Hints:
Elements lengths: L12 H21 L6 H8 L3 H7 L3 H16 L4 H4 L5 H17 L7 H9 L4 H28 L6 H22 L3 H16 L5
Amino acid sequence: MTQKARRDPKLTAKGERTRQRIVEAAAELMFRNGVADTSLEAVKEGAGVSSSQIYHYFDDKRALVMAVIDYQTERVVGGQESMFDEFDTVDRLVKWRDVIVNHQRLLGFFGGCPLGSIGSEVAELDEHARRRVAASFDRWEGGIRRGLTTMRQRGDLRGDPDDLALAMLAALQGGLLLMQVKRSTRPLEKALDTMIEHISSLCGAG
Length: 206
């Protein structure tokens, strides 16, 4: 899943690369160890930068966490948006499901959802970070909703795209969590398959 480039106009190309390296190192550490157990010292070592470089780009750890949320949003949600643009048939829902499941197999069932993991940590500790993650999930839900809305407008779908998109995202997140704990994609597959079967049942003559 690719990440969309995001440049700060105040930074030189070299500065942007350094900042990106810091964010990527922090994202990897926070994904593997959690936000609380990721120190700026560990990020410094992981990115191969000095403390002064970290503080040049980020006022504190909280600012770095916000940047990591944005990074993971572009990586996870942004990486799926080309599929969302064609998310208007049951067959394409199945194709998206297969991409998600196969990607998790490649990861060895490790870590669950990067956005879900960081969201569960910050939700009760940092209201601003919670809202940032919530906005990321809104974007994800909106991508799913677009295709379902097209199906509805075309007359192929009888259900409410808003409710179905929310339920699909909830199934995805729950499936990713159970997959992580059980070390098997089966919960993820069953959660997504059940939602797709439900959507399929709402398509066609009724």
